[in-house]
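2024-03-11 09:14:02 INFO queue: dequeued item HMG box domain-containing protein, len=440
2024-03-11 09:14:02 INFO validating residues
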Amino acid sequence: MGDTDVGEVAAPKRGRGRKALKEKANIISPSSDEGNVPSKKQQQSFEKELLEMQEMLQQMRLEKEKTEELLKAKDEALKQKDQELKKLHKLKEFKPTMNFPVLKDNDQKKDKKKGCSETKRPSPPYILWMKDQWSEIKKSSPEAEFKETSNMLGVKWKTVSAEEKKPYEEKYHAEKEAYLQIIAKEKRETEAMRLLEEEQKQRTAMELLEQYMQFKQETEKEGKKNKKEKDPLKPKHPMSAYFLFTNDRRAALLAENKNFLEVPKITAEEWKNMTEEQKRPYEEMAKKNREKYALEMEAYKQKKDEEAAHLMKEEEEHTKLQKQEALQLLKKKEKTENIIKKTKQKKKQNKEDKNSDPNRPKRPPSSFLLFSKEARKTLQEERPGVNTSTLNALVSLKWKELSEEDRQLWNDQASKAMDVFKKELEEYNKSLASQEQKSE
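2024-03-11 09:14:37 INFO prediction written
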């Protein structure tokens, strides 16, 4: 029994020791489940890496926001530039609705040289005679060249008597007189139109400026381009037989839940397989529509032609009125010029009447004129062959360079001459008065 008791007690001790060893091995061994649990150091490093990653992400978000803001700003700048370019493009397309009849009339005469006229100059007597004699010379010497024929006629013209030349000269003078009248009339009309154009320049400029400002305001308000407006009165082109058929079939095909893109394909295939009898009603309808369209277009064209003719007539009347207005302006200008001319002539006549009496004393020259006479002589001796303008400039320069004393000498001479003139004029006036009393 003692042995058995000892054995029974010893056995569990050995078992507990083995379990303890196994627990220790399990803690140390990484293959066990408890070995998968991370240590504190590993947890700290992991948290640190996580924080770094979060900071990087935050930084990347900030950079992304900044780039998005920059892109938005660039887009807005581009949009503004685009709008400015559109405005500028619209401003370039400014087309005034004004009429410039005077300028238009001038544009038609651009190709002509100044002073030239459509009317031909009259041929001189020699040319008129040569035209009559040319055929006779050619008959006598058909092989003669142009130069030889001209020389022969030139020699013959010298022998022609004054009586034979007379009819050609009379014809030339008559044609010349008519030509000069036409030229004078054309010149007068041109001058009148020029005056009218000058008067209209300011008014035209103001109207053009108003239109431009209005156009600029409209372009700033409107962002989109205005489409070209179609004439609502113009008849619409009729549909063909095929399109009339498709219009009938479209509603039925769409009701059958056919796709909008499939409808044209189906109608095209059906039209292709249709017989002539099936197509006939559509073709007849299309023919009637074409006939109706032709009649409407003819009436429309006729109306347009009438409008164009009416506009042309109005333009012609306007041009006539302008010419009349221009001639009135020219007459007004000529009248003003005549008044000015007559006034000048009257003043000149009065002056001549005053100075017509040879006994009337003449006004003495000024101090500068007295000096210039002397200075001119010396300068001509010093510089022979000098022109008048240079001489005058040199004289005036010398006069400016004179001292006060030297200038006073010339002033004294001029004042003495003036005193003498006044005394002579007083005596002359007294003698005139006494003569008038005697005559009365």
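2024-03-11 09:14:37 INFO annotate: The longest helix spans residues 276-355.
2024-03-11 09:14:38 INFO item closed
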